[in-house]
Amino acid sequence: MTRKELVHQIISKRTFLCVGLDTDIKKIPEHLLSEASPIFTFNKAIIDATAPYCVAYKPNLAFYESLGVSGMAAFEHTVRYLKKYYPHHFIIADAKRGDIGNTSAMYARTFFEEYDIDSLTVAPYMGEDSVTPFLGYDGKWVILLALTSNRGSSDFQLLTDTEGVRLFEHVITRSQQWAGPDKMMYVVGATQGSMFKEIRRLAPDHFLLVPGVGAQGGSLQEVCHYGLTSDCGLLVNSSRGIIYASRGEDFAEAACANARQLQEEMEAILRQSGILG
Known about the structure:
This protein is an alpha/beta fold. It has 11 helices and 8 strands. The protein has an 8-stranded parallel β-barrel with strand order 1-2-3-4-5-6-7-8, surrounded by 6 helices. Strand 7, helix 9 (220-227) and strand 8 form a beta-alpha-beta unit. Helix 2 (38-50) packs parallel to helix 4 (68-85) and helix 2 packs parallel to helix 11. The protein starts with a helix and ends with a helix. The mean pLDDT is 95.
């Protein structure tokens, strides 16, 4: 998916919501556990219920890898289902890969050739040669970790050099030498609040993938106040707040209601900003 196509989806659907498929076998409704593939059955119901209100889905690989072969089969079935029935939704593999060049090339082959996923989260700690193998695929995106939403993000990401430049700032400025805003996004946690102003100073045109709205306490209004661009420039992710809205048999309906509420809030923001006419 190109940037133009992604922006078109955001405007036509009046939303920049990404639904995180962080599907935990210990948290899904008990009545699904008798299914042949409980994880895929849960994901399918969530996707069908929320697809009108989002433009992207983000399965987190850890939740699938934790179940071994059956979990990875559920991941593959989820991706195939999305590509067959919802081909205009942007798929993000939240795998946070990044290793020496030849290993990264294998990760890139896995997600961009075998699974044919639109984008992949990548850890930049090992530098340029660990990231560039992911950038050689047309229409595929690298989503680089920049300033994350977890409590420990300050342990390294906010460390400053002798000139007062923070590590996350180095990541953003240096990585823009590797790819432009048509191939690279950045992960910036919603809990970082006004730091989005600094992010936009460094990366005014790049899309930002923003986790942390909802269960982690991030503010959608604050994210948009500092992070919105003329063509939106944001994919705001909600996982637990949507997919675990209910543990009962009405779980899909509850997910639908929460996704629709976020979509309505996002539509209002897009109209206020002038992105929607």
